[in-house]
Design a protein that fits this description.
With 268 residues, the protein is α/β, with parallel strands linked by helices. The protein has nine helices and nine strands.
Length: 268
C-alpha cells in the first residue's frame, strides 16, 4: 500500500503513545483517520493537535475490553467514511508482577484488552474487507511476543497469542486469494507511558516509569517505521534496540543460552 493519501485508517489506543504518534503521521499524509480510545477528552486533544483538514479526523470512543460494544462500534466506524482501508489494532496494557504474586483477574484483564478485544475488532471488520477484497490489518504485538522475561508473564502470553492468531489469518487470506495484508509490529522499549499504566500483581496501576522505557525509541520514530512497513507491504517488523533484537536472535538459535541470560535481566 504505497499511497496512503485519502485511505481510511482506524487507530485504537490513539489517545497516547504509539497510537497518538501514528495519528499525527497519518494526518501529515492526508489520510482519513478514525481515532479510538476510552477517553474522549484525550482524543479531542489529539485531534486538535493534528495538521491538515480536521474534517478528515473522526473520534469514536471505544473500550476494547467491552466486547459487547465492539460489533456496534465497528459498524459506526465503517459508516464514518464509508469504508476502512487500514485497521491498526494498537490498544493494550502491560504488566509488572511475578507469577506467584499476580492474581488471575490480572491475567484475564490483559487477555480481554490485548487479545480478545483486538481479535474481536478484526473478526467484525474482516467480512467487510473480504467483500471488497482489500484491507490492511496492523497489529501492535511486541518483542515480548517472541521472548518473555520476568514480571511480564501475562503480557508476554497475550502477545504470543496475537502472533499465532495473525500468522494463521495471513495464511488463510492467501488461501482464499484475498488481498488482505497483515502486519505484525514488534516494538521493544518505546518511550511511552506503558510502564506507568502497567498492572501490578494486585491489579493496581504501577504508576511509575520504567528505566528502559525512559531510554527507549521515541513514539514518533516508531510511528514512522510502522508506516514505512505498511508502504512496503511487510509482514513483520521489529522496532527495537540492539539488546531486544539480540534477545530474539539468541532465543531462536540458542534457546538454552537465552534461558540462562534471561534470569540475569532486571525487568522494569
Amino acid at each position: 500500500m504505497n499511497d496512503l493519501r485519502e485511505k481510511v485508517v482506524w487507530i485504537t489506543g490513539a489517545s497516547s503513545g504509539i497510537g497518538e504518534a501514528l495519528t499525527y503521521e497519518f494526518a501529515k499524509l492526508n489520510s482519513k483517520i478514525i481515532i479510538s480510545a476510552r477517553r474522549k477528552e484525550e482524543l479531542e486533544r489529539v485531534k486538535s493537535s493534528c495538521s491538515g483538514d480536521q474534517n478528515n479526523i473522526k473520534i469514536l470512543t471505544l473500550d476494547v475490553a467491552d466486547i459487547t460494544q465492539i460489533s456496534e462500534r465497528t459498524e459506526e466506524a465503517w459508516e464514518l467514511f464509508g469504508s476502512i482501508d487500514v485497521l491498526i489494532n494498537n490498544a493494550g496494557v502491560s504488566q509488572r508482577g511475578l507469577v506467584k504474586e499476580t492474581i488471575l483477574d490480572v491475567d484475564r484483564r490483559l487477555f480481554e484488552i490485548n487479545y480478545f478485544g483486538n481479535i474481536a475488532l478484526t473478526k467484525y471488520l474482516l467480512p467487510k474487507m473480504m467483500s471488497r477484497n482489500s484491507g490492511y490489518i496492523v497489529v501492535t504485538s511486541s518483542v515480548a511476543g517472541k521472548v518473555s522475561t520476568p514480571l511480564r508473564s501475562a503480557y508476554a502470553a497475550t502477545k504470543h497469542a496475537l502472533q499465532g492468531f495473525y500468522d494463521a489469518l495471513r495464511a488463510e487470506m492467501v488461501q482464499d486469494k484475498k488481498d488482505i495484508r497483515v502486519l505484525l509490529v514488534c516494538p521493544g522499549f518505546i518511550k511511552t507511558n506503558i510502564t506507568y499504566h502497567s498492572l501490578k500483581g494486585s491489579g493496581e496501576p504501577l504508576n511509575e516509569m520504567g528505566d528502559a522505557h525512559k531510554k527507549g525509541i521515541s513514539p514518533e520514530d516508531c510511528a514512522k517505521r510502522i508506516i514505512r512497513g505498511i508502504k512496503n507491504n511487510k509482514e513483520e517488523i521489529y522496532i527495537a534496540g540492539f539488546l531486544e533484537n539480540f534477545a530474539v536472535y539468541v532465543k531462536r538459535f540458542f534457546p538454552s543460552l537465552y534461558s540462562k541470560l534471561v534470569t540475569r535481566i532486571k525487568s522494569t
